[in-house]
Structure formats: structure tokens, C-alpha cells
Amino acid sequence: MKREAPFFEGKDPVLIYIAKRLNDALRLESILDTSGVDFGVEADEYRGGVVFRTVRTGAFFYVLPGAAAAACEILRHNGYQPYEEPAGK
Q: Cβ contacts of residue 55 below 8 Å, gap of 6+?
């Protein structure tokens, strides 16, 4: 179920996916909602591009730490690659 920001206050939410296209974000919202996962979505900026690096806006999906493993498995099962923190950060 999609949750608002107060649901995550005082907790350390885990970033599980960055949707770069609206269609992906809407589909993932539906998948997580149908699966009964509590999640939050926030628009934020990320850097993209290989040769010409640009700042772009995406939909960042978050869950509580206890739900991260199950949520990532749901993502994989539906053809999404969960977000992984880049090495060295």
C-alpha cells in the first residue's frame, strides 16, 4: 500500500528502485500495492548518461528495512532490477 511521508518518520527507509519513466513508476506502484507491500514514492533527481551526464528526475521507491528483502524479490519476479548502492559510497 502506498504510504505518505509521516509513515516513514523516525524510521530509516530503504531505497529499492528508481523509476526513470512514468510508465515504469505506475506499473511498479500497482505491483507493490497488489502484493501488499507498504511503500513510499518520492520524486527526486539522479544523474544519467554515459558521455553527456545530465540531471534527471525519477520516482524513488522506498520501503521499511524489514520489508526490503521481500520487496526486492517482488521486483525481480516482475522483471525489475532492485536498486543497489554504488560501491564506495
A: 45, 46, 47, 48
Q: For the whole model, what pTM was predicted?
A: 0.90
Question: In the chain, at which residue ranges do the beta strands (DSSP E only) sit?
Answer: 14-19, 40-48, 54-63
Between CA 5 and CA 38 the distance in angstroms is 12
- pLDDT, residue 89, reads 56
Distance of CA 46 to the CA centre of its chain: 12
Q: Is residue 22 part of a domain?
A: yes
**From edge to edge, which strands make up the β-sheet containing 40-48?**
14-19, 54-63, 40-48
Of residues 8 and 89, more confidently modeled: 8
CATH label of the domain that carries residue 15: 3.30.70
User: Which domain does 62 fall in, by range?
Assistant: 5-77
